[in-house]
Amino acid sequence: MRPKFQLLDKPFIERILGEAFELIEVPGLRIAPYVVELLQAGGIRVENGVAHIPEAVARRALESVPREFLLHDRDGAPAVRYGRDAVHFDPGSSCLNILDPETQKARPAESHDLIRLVQVAEMLPQYTAQSTAMVCNDVPAEIGDWYRLLLVLLHSKKPVVTGAFSASSLHVLLELLAIESGGADALRRRPRAIFDVCPSPPLNWSEFASQNLVELARAGVPAEIVSMPLAGATAPVTIAGSVVQHAAECISGITIHQLAKAGAPIVWGAAPAIFDMRSGKTPMGAIETVMLDVACAEVGKYLGLPTHAYMVAGDGRVIDAQVEMESGISAALGALAGINMISGAGMLDFLACHSIEKLVIDAEAIASAQRLIEGIEPRTETLATAMFAQTGLSGDFLKLKETRALFRKEQHFPSSVIDRGLAGPENAPDILRRAQARVEELLAAYERPALPAGLESEMIAFARREGPKAGLKDLPGISCAEATALANQV
Amino acid sequence: MPENPYSAMRQSIVDGAPDTASDLARQALAVGIAPLDAINDGYVPGMHAVGEQFARGQMFLPDMMASAEAMRAAMAVLEPELKKQGAERPNAGTVILGTTKGDIHEIGKTLVGTLLTAHGFSVHDLGVDVSAEKFAAKANEVGADIVGVSALLTTTMRNQKGVIESLERAGLRARVKVIVGGAPVSRKWADEIGADGYAKDAMSAVALARELMQAKQQAKTPALENA
Fold first, then answer.
1. Vertex B50, ends B184 and B93: CA angle to 5°?
2. Which CATH superfamily is domain B94-226 in?
3. Less Cβ around it within 10 Å: N or C end of chain B?
């Protein structure tokens, strides 16, 4: 039996959806000029920049969304399954700071930090996907989105959770992915990336976000709505009320998306949080934030849609008991909730900071969560009596062939990040030291999965062509010799 | 009129009760209490208590919002009367407030504005999503002493630096102090961008503004003597 965690029953979800359908009609949603004609052609009344979506139109859109779809790795093999109760994890994205590996103090992230994080995530099977995890401060802001994607593509084979920073840059990211996939059609058939698209709470689809929805639908590249109600500030203070707002934002986004191209893949995603009434901050590790995540996903699953949530992030400023307690709890609950893609690992300080050391610690929490959802299997014909028939009352189970045959299935073996006493009772390094050692171990074992030379040189040439338009002089994170050699092959 | 009107006024602010606060203000005027006394001995101590309780973690943001609303309600009754009597409150300093370009979160900045107003500052609130140039233009127009720039997001926090640069370009930086705040903002960040101060909450922002005004006065005095 697959264990599950649920917070809402069917009548409660129906009530949430009932109010969400009400909200998308009255008061409706603020929308951008870009989608007015599209919505009107779909039978939606638009007045003064506000769309009033009838329930029937929204329900049709919800029905045309694919229930399942795949993201592929660079070799074209299926790697991430969105839909049903599949559970995957990826590192949190778009962070501005990193905890410096040496000083453990936050500082602005740069290209070399992103590459290091990608290399570590590439080596950890707990992360089925990469993310464009940081905003690289050594790259001009206006090209930061495609440049960081380029760095991920050059260093990883795994699928990527990414996003554009503006309406105009999406096509650049798609162009880059198409080069790697061997053309726009190949990208559509075997998408490697999924794009986060965020409505602005409450009930507002900006020009940038709606344009992204429409263009992703038309390109056939998956979109992931990341609706982020802040309970008590930009959304109702109650968890239930915020879940209603989340549902209304997702349903309206899906309506825009499916009107642009029915059947295009899209995910019911969330990054909600409570608004802390003392600090005004948005704690990702608060249990109510986790409850919001789970409840939002439950509504999406009830509609049969692929789901996403932002979890496994803690709020402390350094790697300490608080951030790991918060991250561990949400990893377990997110997995039990059957959320298809859970983003956020590695992050701390209210999503302001990434830590590669935390990423390897979180991988252990994720591995435990993954073991948890495997549940308890009978495995043997009698559960215990046959084994007792062999041992009697001697207690000598270690010798049994069943023990040897089954212990690997029953027990998950964590890495050296988790202290299971192997280092001896004295002088065992603390969790940070263990994590630092693990990072070094993974980096030493990492080998860059190089693209075929032709493709790689095409991507570098692309960066050489597009970068200088924004004032990029060299290519941070890509060694000069490497870049020149590759560019010369073009 | 309650037996101790000033205590009732104070309590109406602590309770966050706008109707009671404005009723008490009207009653006070009716029985001849000077509007400045009502403000200084009734309502401001209430706001002060709220700020202190907030700093101690005993009151929360929704409570602060309600108290700010009550304060505004009382001031709406008292200020016209104050003007009529030509007895305006001495200006503790002229402050421009706003949220950085791209940021639409106004709670923090609005609370700072309310507390500063309560403590005698003349506050010009430019609202949300304010460009660096607009901050500078308004500072020039009203002869601001302090510009307060708020940001809730790490992404929009960067624009606080732009406001300082804009004041520099406008040649105002020497006479205008810049203070920054918001959830992701820290003292370190304030130092990094060359701001004059950082406050972690609304009450500390009042203390900071007072300190800066005091420093400004002290800096001015010797110059006058020399002249």
1. 70
2. Cobalamin-binding domain (3.40.50.280)
3. C
